[in-house]
Specification:
By secondary structure, this protein is an alpha+beta fold. It contains twelve helices and ten strands. The strands form three sheets. It has a four-stranded mixed beta sheet.
């Protein structure tokens, strides 16, 4: 596993799981999670930078109910979610080698890796499919998805029943969660990802308006943009690379290309800008880089956005042992 080059085995995964309080039946999820975060494309080693980037995991399929992985109110701090998250934090330290002062350099530190599960019963009721099914897995398969985030996001309170306006509101939150500077320099990067979590009541507003999960991604992507004025302001005064540049410098160096810049694309909610400064760039290159997960308190209208510029979503199937059905009933 990078960056330590430690050989990961079921034995040392189990050791970290035991220290975290995991039970034997959690092992298939831990193994799938390690396989996902160990994929080179996931880019695990970059999580140790000074931005304090963190992993998070989403469990889909029957195993979530079987293990009591929560999908409702307070989900990340209840049930099996907490011990699995603690185990993945230990695995990051002990197996991946993310140690303080070496490659674990978060300026303000790190939170416990949160673990989510989707509310799949309500998804089917409203006519949507779980995330893993949309990604090509069978409904009766179980999966673990991993991505990254720089923050535990602010929670929006959508109050509109208009799905078009709701998509604009989510686009506003997505743009606010990220960085104009980073988006300008990473318009060809598949690792620039904004993950949207929404409660079932918010998802239902979209579903009742005829929107699929992919329709929501497309609508949010269309509206989530940064003006070049924002790019220039942050790039000049707040670039993490310490260089005072504008979008014109990015065009000259090739970090940004003209094909990403569009005139007259300011969304309706966007603050007015000076004449001839209405050119914008999309927050992410493609709608697929706005994954959506449905979970949380079903009685609340909440959304939350996670942001990373270093990690793509990786999803792995959970492989179960031959005697799995004999090991007990659901812990939901």
């Amino acid at each position: 596993m990078r960056p330590s080059s430690v050989r990961v085995t079921p034995w040392n995964i189990a050791v970290n799981g035991v220290m975290a309080g995991c039970r034997p039946e959690h092992m298939p999820v831990l193994i799938a999670a390690v396989e996902a975060m160990g994929e080179p494309f996931y880019n695990l080693e970059q999580l140790g930078s000074t931005g304090g980037w963190n992993m998070f995991f989403v469990v889909n399929g029957p195993i979530a109910k079987r293990l009591g992985i929560q999908n409702g109110v307070g989900l990340v701090s209840r049930g099996a979610n907490t011990v699995i998250g603690r185990a993945m934090g230990l695995i990051r330290h002990n197996l991946a080698g993310h140690r303080p002062g070496e490659v674990y350099m978060g300026t303000f530190g790190y939170i416990l890796p949160p673990v989510f599960a989707e509310n799949e019963e309500l998804l089917y009721e409203m006519g949507w499919k779980p995330y893993h099914v949309d990604e090509g897995f069978d409904a009766d398969e179980s999966t673990v998805s991993v991505c990254g985030t720089a923050k535990w996001g602010y929670q929006m309170y959508p109050t509109t029943s208009d799905p078009g306006r709701l998509a604009q509101l989510l686009a506003y939150d997505v743009a606010r969660a990220g960085s104009p500077n980073h988006s300008a320099m990473r318009q060809d990067s598949p690792r620039l990802v904004f993950t949207i979590f929404m409660t079932p009541s918010v998802a239902r507003t979209f579903a009742e308006g005829g929107y699929s999960r992919q329709d929501v991604q497309n609508a949010v992507w269309k509206n989530a943009r940064y003006s070049l004025a924002e790019v220039d302001f942050e790039s000049y005064y707040g670039s993490h690379e310490g260089q005072r540049e504008t979008h014109r410098d990015y065009l000259k160096s090739g970090k940004l290309t003209e094909r990403h810049i569009e005139k007259g694309k300011l969304p309706t909610w966007f603050p007015k800008v000076a004449e001839k400064e209405d050119a914008t760039i999309p927050v992410v290159p493609r709608p697929e880089q706005l994954p959506i997960f449905v979970c949380g308190d079903p009685t609340r209208n909440k959304t939350m956005t996670f942001y990373t510029m270093y990690n793509a979503v990786e999803t792995k199937a959970v492989r179960l042992p031959a005697n799995w059905d004999a090991q007990g009933k659901d812990r939901a």
